[in-house]
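cron nightly-structures :: item 1 of 1
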Amino acid sequence: MAGLTPPTFDERTTIIEFMRQQRYVLKVTAFGLTDEQAKAAPTVSALSVGGIIKHVALTERHWMQRIVADREVAGMEAEYETGFTLLDGETLASTLAFYDEVAGQTEDLLVAEADLGRLVPIPTGVPWFPQDEDNWSLRWVLHHVIEETARHAGHADIVRESVDGGSGFKLLADYETAQGNPPSWAAYVDA
């Protein structure tokens, strides 16, 4: 997948492709990192590349399973407390695999959904959720998940650059080359 989504011509496919692309660029920020580097928090914040990926996976799962599918997610509150940190026994590889699992579940839900305009209830008692509205549309939720993934991909870019100098297009070119798909634009990226 290049730095842009492929052209799409219907809303559902466009949403799926933008979700895939934002997940992809987030995951690329971890390319080539060791577990120790993925856990490193080299900026003034406590954020690490691995912790950001874990948080985004947990958050997407929360939005899609709890809010869209109306399923309880066991341990969700406890996960929030440790959601930005790779704990003992958690590796970058296991975190990326978990994120792929969540992505698959999201796409299954999205493909099976008949109406992107379907209303989903806004959970009550959550201070950062609107108190004067009762519902979001599924469409709104999906766009919000894309927005949050993109926001955190930007955070991960900054953290990654602080870990070892890796950044944006160079990481993307290196990742695609390692996958056997050297991009035609790789020559334009500073070595």
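cron nightly-structures :: done
The helical segments are 11-28, 35-39, 49-68, 76-82, 92-112, 138-164, 168-178.
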